[in-house]
Amino acid sequence: MTSVDLGPEIVPDSQYRGLTAALPDTIRPYWLLARFDRPIGWQLLFWPGAWGVALAGGIVSHWSAILLIMIGAVAMRGAGCVYNDIVDRDLDRQVARTRARPLASGAVSLKAAWAWLLLLCLVGLAVLTALQSRTVAIIAIASLAPVAAYPFMKRITWWPQLWLGIVFSWALPVGWAAVTGWPESILPPMLLYLGSILWVIGYDTIYALQDREDDALIGIRSSALRLGRHVRGGVGIFYALALMLWAAAFWTVRPQPLALAALLPMAVHLGWQVMNLREADGGDALAKFRSNRFAGLLMLLACATVGSAG
Prior knowledge:
The protein is mainly alpha-helical.
C-alpha cells in the first residue's frame, strides 16, 4: 500500500478535514474508502429508518433502536461505498472527482478493500443481532441483493437513482418493524417507503449534476443526464410526489387535516431546493444535496408528531 498525499485525496464534498488529516497514513485511506470523511451519506441512509420508528410511535420508547439503526447506517453505508469502489475502480480513474479515491489511486489494494468490506459487514450483523427481531433481520438481509446490484445500474439504465432510492430507503421498514414486529397493516410504512424512494431520486439527481460532463464522456448514465435541461422540473415532480405519498402515510396513521400540517416545513424546504437550484453550478448542486440532511430531520419531526399522537 502506498501513501497518498492528502491534498488530492480530498474531493469537493469531503468534510472533517482536520480529523481526516490527523489520521495516520496507514489508516486514512480506509477512512476515505468508507467515506467516513463525508457523513452526509450515512445520515441520508439513517433518516428513513428513524422515520419508520417515529411514525410507528416509538420515538421515545424505542430510542435504542434509533441508535442501533444509526450505527448500522454508518457501517453499512461504509460497506456500500467500499463495494461500489471495488466494482467501479476502473471507471473512477476516468472521472476527475473520483480518480483520487483510495482504490482507483492505488492507496488501498483490492485484497485489503475486500477485508475492510467484510469487517464493516460484521458490524452491521452485530447491529441486527442487537435489535433481537427476526422480522427486522429478514427485512435487512433482503436488502443485500439490491445493494449488490446498485453499482451496475449506472451501466444499464438512465435511472440508477431509482435503484439508489430502493436501497437508501430500506431502513424505513426496518425501523417500523423494530417497533411493531410484524405489522397488521403494511400500508403506512409502504407509503412512507415509496415517498422516500422519490425523495432519494430527487436529491441524488441534484448530486449527479456535478458529474454530467465526465459521465457523458465515459458512458455512465444518470437521471441528471436523462432529464437534460429539465432537471429542476424533474426534481420538483419527484419531491411533489414524495410529499403526496408521505401525506397519505400520515393520513393512514392519523386521519386528521392537522396531521398533514406536520409536513409543511418539509414541503417548504424541498420547494426551496427546487426554486433555488442552479443546474450549471456544481458547487450549488452539492450545497442543495447536502441540505437534505436537514430535510431528513424535518421529516423525522413530522413523523414523531404524527406517530406520537396516532
